[in-house]
Amino acid sequence: MGPLPAAARAYIACAVLAAALCAAPAVRDPSAVPWSSVVLLAAAGAACELLPRCRLALPLLLAGAFLLPPQAAGLVAVPGALAARDVRPPARVRRLWHAAQYALATGAASFAYGLAGPRLVTAPGFPAALLPALAAALVLAAVVAALDGGVLVTAEGRSPRTAWRTPLPEALLPALLCGPTALLMAVLWHSPYGPPAALLVLLPMALSSWVLDRCHRERAAHRATVRALVQAVDLKDRYTRGHSERVGRAAVLIARELGFTGARLEALRFAGTLHDIGKLGVPTRVLRKDGPLTPEERRVIELHPEYGHEMVRGIGFLDEARAAILHHHERLDGTGYPHGLKGHQIPEAARVVSVADAFDAMTSTRSYSRARPVPAALAELRRCAGSHFDPRMVAALCRALDRHGWRTGTPVPVSRNVPVDQRSITAGITGEITAEIPSDITTDITAEITAAPGPAPSAGGPR
Q1: Which residue range is the domain that position 99 belongs to?
Q2: Number of domains in the chain
Q3: How far from 214 is each of 32, 54, 220, 221, 316, CA to CA, in Å?
Q4: Same domain as 342, residue 219
Q5: pLDDT tens digits, residue range 6-62?
Q6: What pLDDT, on a 0 to 100 scale, did the predictor assign at position 262?
């Protein structure tokens, strides 16, 4: 980061001065401040900042706002902000800024809490204190977001509307969630059990924070693994650039229509994105061949689902996705590959990915064929539903596109009621059949059908 603009330095200096002025009454009249509570809370906050991935500063600040008068509550934030780890340069300026920012926010929260009347931090007063506590938490979040917006305006030159619109929603929810916990800490602080019992409340919160952090890191690692695998395929086969992501997106649209949520929805996203990972096992000369494929080359390419399944076998989080990778070229009538499964022998995830793959193949431009309009592609999917594709999956894709449209660059509204000229579809399919088959045979639906051994199926039948 370069030098801070003069406006940003002036803004930070004003914040530091304002925080100092707010804390001045505590220095002038030390007898009005419970310094033992200030020291304990400030020390706990500093310890939380020094521990890796220990995100407990917010409940400690709110507890300080509930326990202390405004002039002292702001002091709780200072040691933790000055001791913070992993601060981007200029580190000293950032630490000073955060110290002032959170001191002002905590003082404002304490002031808002005090407006409700006497500080109700005893057990009998707990229910009555809940609403003031939530209001104080909102004040703290709002002040933090407002001060952050000022930095974005003065340091990065953002417009005020953008600067203040983005941070506020992100700050409100954590504050609301931490408000009741901080109030419980304050109640225990003045209970017969004292501050040790209050600080013990942080233990389950620390454990929850650690677990959530691990989950976020694990999900990030999963997505990084998938991205790396997709990029490896992209380097080998030009057509898959963008195709894998689009198939993943279409698979998610179908899965949501079918009611998939949580881990199953994520598995479908991974399955769609990685369905062609087995291309890494296919010789590059075959994938990039410009002319028609020999029967032997076709057999090699038709092994790519099995190659993909073996490649991801040891990746635990791809459990359900593995079945989709292996069977996404199966057909309901048993004419697909690699195992010739029929009907519901084909895993549900594979039936989803099969429709998503076929749809993107028909609506994508390749070197030997132009992309078809979305209504034409949907008409072809509906025509082949029941023989090649699961009708439920086709219907789910149609409903999803009615609602959300389909975009590679900009959204394209789609309606199943758009009239489609069947003759133009058939002509386009026939053109594809007679075209030379290049490297992306594994994703071209009609070319594979017509090249299969035996009598040629009806024009346009997806693979």
Answers
A1: 6-200
A2: 2
A3: 43, 12, 10, 10, 16
A4: yes
A5: 999 999 999 999 999 999 998 888 888 889 999 999 998 888 887 766 678 888 899
A6: 84
